[in-house]
Design goal:
single chain, about 120 residues, mainly alpha, de novo design (two linked rop proteins)
Length: about 120
């Protein structure tokens, strides 16, 4: 199946789910009151989704891969912040585990797409 829209990419779909969940959990409890952490958490998750979309719109494959790399790096940032929120008890264990799962799914799809693009020869 030929993908013609970024919305069709599994990594973008997973990132969209991640962003939604990040926004949901950041509206509750102690995290909702820590404006800096909440903002950074949200911006990092949105960065994942938007970099996938922006990269897809680039003309050259190498540029797309660069944006995918930024997206997967932003996903790692989200994951790192989850450890902070766990340590500070900002989120309950269930929310932390759910978000780790969503981050891992998003990163895995994104990294798989990068590997797929690396197999091709055209730019």
């Amino acid at each position: 199946m030929k993908v013609t829209r970024f919305e069709d990419l599994e990594c973008w779909q997973a990132a969209r789910e991640l962003v939604k969940r990040v926004y949901e959990v950041s509206q509750e409890g102690a995290l909702s009151k820590d404006w800096d952490a909440r903002s950074q958490f949200r911006r990092a998750s949105v960065s994942v989704m938007n970099n996938i979309a922006e990269g897809f719109a680039r003309y050259y494959k190498n540029e797309f891969k660069r944006f995918l790399d930024i997206a997967q790096s932003s996903a790692a940032e989200v994951k790192s912040m989850l450890y902070l929120f766990e340590d500070l008890q900002y989120l309950d264990k269930e929310a932390i585990e759910d978000l780790h799962s969503k981050v891992n799914k998003t990163r895995n799809f994104t990294l798989s797409l990068i590997r797929y693009l690396d197999k091709g020869t055209s730019t």
